[in-house]
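Q: What changes when magnesium ion is included in the input?
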Amino acid sequence: MKSGWLMVDSISTFVVSRPYVRPFGISSGTSDVLTSLIVEVVAGDRTGIGEAAPMTAYTGETLDGVKCAVEDYLTPALVGQKLNGAGDAHVIMDKALRGQHLAKAAIDIALHDLIANVSGLPVHALLGGAGRDSVAIAWVIGLGDIDDIVKEAVAHADQGFGHIKVKGGEDPARDLSLVCALREALPETIEISLDANEGYSRSSAFSILEKMDRAGLSVIEQPLARWDLRGMAELRQQLRMQVMADESVQSIHDALAVIRSDAADIINIKILKVGGLHRARQIAGMAEAAGIAIKIGSMPELGVATLAALHLAASTPNASVAADLIGPLMVKDEPFAPDLVSDGRHGWLRTPMTPGLGHQLMHSIGKVLE
Ligand SMILES: [Mg+2]
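A: The predicted holo structure follows.
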């Protein structure tokens, strides 16, 4: 048995739900409530907290499945083990259970929080250290009526958001109308991106995107099916706008395939999708070497995962695209990161400089479970 300075004593889970301010719709469905699994890792008198918010149509993982993966597979594998860091835990987790990135991400985030707490340092210090005092965030608007979306986009651009991201993929003609309406309503300096969530067909994507190119769309996110890397590479060559891979990159192996295929200008890294901060750092490093920019994205998620993503965005040199870290702003009574909610109104989030993820999580959990 190897030596290690950290012994995991216990891992426990809590389910926390919060209603959306407005129902959130993407091409795979609409939700009224954001539900997350909070994971607490205890080692001696130290605690770390992680979060996994399953978006089932997107990753194929359910709340019950993530809970089962944590409680019945990953917890028995990790408890009593001596660890030297979060990367060390991934070796054990991958041996115990294939896939299940959300469950592994929740534990990975908790371990980073715990180790940073032990060190008295912010989590970003474990990720190479923050190169930014604040992180630009995009305002993300789900599917809906074009007039309502334009009004919401203009209101947030007025508040200071420099990047508006909208959802599409169900109806290319409607998406083109939306892009044209947004470009007309927003100042030229505001970047617009559209996330098609794999919704376009290879045969029709070029003709519609060429029109969006002329209308002033800056970025198209995941226009084609996640496995169609050749199609994405062809679009990249034909279009002026940048092409982003999101669903195409769910692991370090996917990232390598995208890089080898020249399929993206930008990779969207979501901590939960790729299995945690450790994996996210590996993907960001591969992208940096290949000259690919990073967007730190998110599922709709509460403050714990959002804070983890904020530490990652602040410490990833090539994370030059506005991050999608607005989960806490999308729900009522966000319990874990109330400061983020008030800071995020103007399109920027401050890099946390306090130990761990950066807020009083234990206090929050007590309040949430009351
Ligand atoms: Mg996306």
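Observations recorded in class: The CA atoms of residues 113 and 357 lie 5 Å apart.
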